[in-house]
Amino acid sequence: MAIELKERPAPPSPREITTKPRRSDQVFRMVVTAGGMASLVILGLIALFLSIKGVHILVEEKFGFITGSAWEVITDESGEVTQSNFGIGAMLIGTMLSAVIAISVGVPISVLSALYLTFYANGKVKKFLISVIDLMAAFPSLLFGFWGFFVFMSSAEYWAKLINKYLGFIPIFDVPTPIFERSPFIAGMVLAIMIIPIVTSISREIFDQTPLDRVQAAYALGATKLAMIKAVVIPYGRGGIIGGAMLGLGRAMGETVAVYTVLNVVYQVNWQLLFGAGGNVASLILLKFGEAGPYEVDALMAAGLILFLLTLLVNATADLLITRFGGKGR
Amino acid sequence: MKKAIPTPKKPWQPTALDKLEDLLIVLAAFGLAGASVKFTGLDGKLGFFFSLFFALLVLNFGFQYLKRGTAAAKDSLLQVLAVMAIVITLIPIVSIVATVFSKGYKGLHWGILTEDMALASVNDPIANGGLLHALAGTIIMVGGALIISFPIGVLTALYLTEIRGPLARPIKFLVQAMSGVPSIVAGLFILSSLIYPVTKQLSGLMGSLALTILMIPTIARTAEEMLHLIPNELREAGVALGGTQWRTVAGVVLPAAKSGLVTAIILGIARIIGETAPLLLVSGGGDALNLNPTQGAMGSLPYYIWKAFLTGGTEEAFARAWGGMLVLLSFIFILFGLARYLSGRKVG
Fold first, then answer.
1. A and B: number of Cβ contacts within 8 A
2. pLDDT over 50 at B199, yes or no
3. Which of A109, A133, A143 has the highest number of chain B CBs within 10 A, making it the mutation to test binding with B?
4. HEC-encoded secondary structure of B163-191
5. Total-model pTM
6. Chain A within 8 Å of B86 (Cβ-Cβ)?
7. Is 1.10.3720.10 the CATH number for A91-285+313-325?
8. What kind of fold does domain B132-344 have according to CATH?
9. In this predicted model, what pLDDT tens digit does every residue of A54-103 receive, in sequence order?
10. What is the greatest pairwise CA distance in chain A?
């Protein structure tokens, strides 16, 4: 019997193997990437729109806008601006002054607190303290401002008088007339209290990443805690701590409401920390905004642009330092 | 037969004697500080604190030096400094919470939930007027900000964790930079981009948009951290079962990160609920109840507090403001407690 040869069915054509994502994935990736670009777009738009409104002021005033220290608009009867003079130099100095006080008081306390939380506290106490400090970081600046004004001011004024009494021979601690209320010193102290929780939690995270083997090695060599921290923790976390301090600086420079409430915003260059006059760029914007005409609003936008670029620069440096050096040691 | 079970010795742990000595040092420091306040020129709380600080430093140093030598003595200095630092950190928070509660309860009454300030001035007796408009405004504005910023924040987080495209580093950097944008700049941006050229009026929606800018980075960063916690095996399992990336993310990763995403929302709300400066610029800040975010001035809790503090001046106005602050702080406490509770639970 002959075998009937059947036609064999053709094998199915092999599925094409490809790394090309399916249609649904392509859409997904596009949507997510578009969403991911949002931060870029928003930051770009902020810079763009503030420039559109403010750049003609910058062009008119040139460098005077940054170095000058006058803020005046003269209008005639019909409200037309006849003469104007804008310079935020005084406010920039005020911003730097209060922010520098804030970090020079706040950062040492924060770093020591973080050391306590990482290497001394343990168990329940540690957990509790960490959540309390995180909670404090979420307090609104309004609260710090009014607490500073109603509760903190009287003690701070007393401290300022003490400093003035014993260190008054140093020019920055001198005062022309004995007005100690609402001074840059007090604003700086309130800002310090505001940034302590932020800097503490960043430093704590950095300290937590210290490799345990090095810590144990230091202990095994007979190091005390101090020696261990000096030899291992600080070299390892130095960049991160500096980054955290810069982050605090950025926060302190952009603060509006708290500074507005505790500082007597006066438009003048004031180097005397304890004297009750000063200001910062953000509080200037809030102060002048209410009464500003359209032309002055443009100048405020320009001031906002400068503040935006300044904080962006500080924050970028901070981020760079934290990611570059955080988690790397010798 | 009796077996002697040796108890492990822990020679590094402080003995009862050590603890007693430490306690004695602290007590002695308090005594010295008290004495110095009493008998020398130093006075007041500050004087006491300073003398306590120095007394503790000196006593600890001296005691450890006599007992264990120079290295231990230096070590004890660091310990005293660290403890002092944490005490200094905690003093303001205790003082703030105590102030808000002790001053705030006077400004509370049942009417605050049903009345607004349309017919009352901040200097009226506390029983007139309430917080209704401020609460409604805050809820509407925060809700609006949440609706816009949650998708954007989660998409950013997904880009950073799931796609990990070539732009992941720069975007992470930009999100970080965005979280540092001063709140007043957010207000100015909305003014210059929308209010002056387009709407020409202040409204609650504008407040929402300004808050969105401040909320996106918080949500994006928290969501990113939470998505990083999802074990990679879950993603691999999803893909191995034939799922596309889209199905894996939507069906496996996001549901697993649900409580984490809720935490992100809560922390985002806590970040913006007390934000004042942008609302002063763009929301108008009305005193009457206004439920329409696109039209007319809208009040908010921070604005209410701000106004009562700055335009008042009487006992009633301050009581009102601290009352508002108490409500705001309670919100933050509740949100924070919720976030703690959710993030404490197991992932998945």
1. 271
2. yes
3. A143
4. HCCCCHHHHHHHHHHHCCCCHHHHHHHHH
5. 0.87
6. yes
7. yes
8. MetI-like fold (1.10.3720)
9. 888 888 877 777 777 777 777 766 666 667 778 888 888 888 888 999 99
10. 126
